[in-house]
């Protein structure tokens, strides 16, 4: 129990730093990686995300207003109250811009691309609990369990999110700590699949070569190609069935 409290406290402190810094929008770190999604904290809305070039159909909106700027659109969401889970601002010139309000999050919203639109969604609109990790990525464990492909697709429904991929020791150490909170019986998908003898590939198309001591791979021909995070390793030869899913997002633009 003591270890769990220390683990949770570490991320609570990180969240407090974000809120108390006075910064509305988290700035990406210096580097060449584009943030997967923007993240901000507001005293009324709480934590929320911002994704460029996305919106939802007018017929899905519970409220539509015209003539606002982005700030006015956000305020409209607050005025609607808790039923506003997300909103979209569509830039169309003076007095012609459109503000759409919706009562659900991205997992159950039909999002479409639009170059002059910006989509905002509250952290609480996503079905799961978010956690900042020492690798400077943001994680959410989804409320439901999924088979591998549906789980990967469910993460992708949330703008800027993907199923868990591990390219650093910091990510590995976070996963081990996270898993230890629940014991060995709690395992979850990692987006890693065996593609050849002694070769596995991550969901971003990169081969697994940097963590040989963390990846346990069975190289017999008849085994299943899938991996889960289990105990202190990424365990191979698991059956594709319903398991827990961790999605990760990169608001700070770090290498991931």
Radius of gyration over all CA atoms, rounded: 20 Å
Helix segment count? 4
Taking all residues together, what is the mean pLDDT?
83
Uncertain residue ranges: 1-23
Number of strands: 15
Q: What fraction of the residues are assigned to beta strands by DSSP?
A: 25-35%
Would you summarize the structure shown here?
The chain is α+β, with helices and mostly antiparallel strands and 256 residues long. It folds into two domains: 31-125, Hepatocyte Growth Factor (3-Layer(bba) Sandwich), CATH 3.50.4; 129-249, Mannose-Binding Protein A, subunit A (Mannose-Binding Protein A, Chain A), CATH 3.10.100.10.
Based on the model shown, name its key terms.
256 residues, alpha+beta, Hepatocyte Growth Factor, Mannose-Binding Protein A, Chain A, 2 domains, six-stranded antiparallel beta sheet, 4 helices, 20% helix, disordered N terminus
Model description:
With about 260 residues, the protein is α+β, with helices and mostly antiparallel strands. The protein folds into two domains: about 30-125, Hepatocyte Growth Factor (3-Layer(bba) Sandwich); about 130-250, Mannose-Binding Protein A, Chain A, CATH 3.10.100.10. It has four helices and 15 strands. A hairpin with a 7-residue loop joins strand 4 (about 85-90) and strand 5 (about 100). The longest helix has 19 residues, at about 1-20.
